[in-house]
Amino acid sequence: MTFEMGPETRQVEAMWDVSTYNYRMDGTGIRLLTEGMKEKKLRGIRCGECGMVYMPGPSYCRKCFVDIDEVVEVKDTGTVMSYCVTMADVRGNPIEEFRISAMIQFDGADTWFVGTVTGVEWQDFKVGMRVKAVWVDEPAGSLSDIDRFEVITD
Amino acid sequence: MRKVAIVGQKQINAADVGKSRERMLFELCRDFYKEMGITRHDIDTFVLCSNDFYSGHTISNVFEDCPVGAYMKDETKVEADGVMAATYAFIRILSGLYDTAVVVASSQGGSVMRPYLQMDYSLNPTYDRQVDLLNEVNAAALQARAYMDEFGVSEEVLDKIAARNLRNAARNPYAFNGKTDVTPADVANSDVLYEPIKAMHCYPFTDGACVLLLAAEDRAKELTDAPVWIKGVGDLLETYYPERDVSRSKSVKSSAERAYKMAGISDPASELDLVEVSAKFSYQEPIICEALGLFPEGSAGDVADRGLADMDSAMPVSPSGGALGAYAFCAGGLVRIAECYRQLTGGAGDTQVADAHTALAHGQDGLFLQHNAVMVVSTEEG
Ligand SMILES: [Zn+2]
Questions:
Q1: Which of A138, B22, B208, B313 is buried most deeply by CB count within 10 Å?
Q2: Which residue in A has a C-alpha nearest to residue B18's C-alpha?
Q3: What ipTM was assigned to the predicted interfaces of this complex?
Q4: Looking at the 3D structure of chain B, how many domains does it have?
């Protein structure tokens, strides 16, 4: 038998479908937020030490390392902290119409929220612009109760 | 060389801890730092120990920094067992760059994911996963049979080892799988998973976390009146099965030899007052202990019959109940060190071994006892 020895690389296809995980999360802050959203209200949790308002709130301050439970009202208006013009979905598939994805700091909160802004040409959109949440007609108590944001024009 | 001590421990183990991993870690560390009289700002470096598979996302430490108090602090991660993470923390203090280190190891194999399934993904994807005949438990069965055949050890011996560990665990408040008065016959009657492995030979699926505080000599003495000194370490990895005899563990043997040399131990069986080993399946305990030089090779039957590894014997093995009492991946090995700490500080309650001054903790990772690490700890500053 003759066999040609030497380095050889092969490609082997195998699935990497690990498992279904039953992830757990802290429920309080997200429940506080979504229950308020049924009434088109936003609520966060404030740290008594540093004053940081988280929305949705964790149950402890990530900076101060203390339990937190002070509920505060947050307005549904906010300021654009950053944005990008989105031309593909998160998997990289092209989308039909360009979309503005913005990081928004709601008035009264210190954390940022990513949402879609409509009703404005992307060339005219700027960091620092003021925006307002547009709610769905019948909020059900979920994060998708905020449909999108629009620029405040007054 | 600097002297480094363990100055405190805290742990939680449950079949289902009923909390998110973030909250589990926050509560554990919050309470631990309070008990130690420190804040997060007193900790120079944080060594986390977790695994992307077990967490279900990449960079598993990304949501651990804040709940352990490492926000904007020096932090690193070991993706292996807790003994390896503690070794790394020890080395970081030895470097002189840090005086205090916290080690936190955790996973939620009880509630969030199924450990056996995860372990399959450590198999070689281009060979063993293609052949599709191995998983964690039948790998254990193959290794158990190899050991039993090599040394003429019966299944009853594995039952006796499991029964002793489960009885020990019943006396340990940090273990949840203990079974008071369980007999080898009860173990023998448990479900056969892959013969000769039965359900009660196996570690229980566990949610858990463990935290240790390590400190260099001066800080250690400020933090506690009873430091437990790290005297020696060894950490070695071998292939998981094809190129070796799985009835023995060379990596346990060699890592122990390194640790003994560093600790100045020449006769481990007489110089160690107890050991805490990570035997995830009962058959692993004699393989580990024999490689540690505590008992003659193949002596499992004699050790079991004569009670030579019992809590009140000359060489107590895992008085805490070991991995059969609770075993959260990553945390498992760190818990073994924590148990040695409890023993050497006289705080082990109903599992306390009398006059314990020097102990060894063992941790492992991988299939077929592939990766092993040991740490020798002592109340003697030396
Ligand atoms: Zn704060």
A1: B208
A2: A24
A3: 0.92
A4: 1
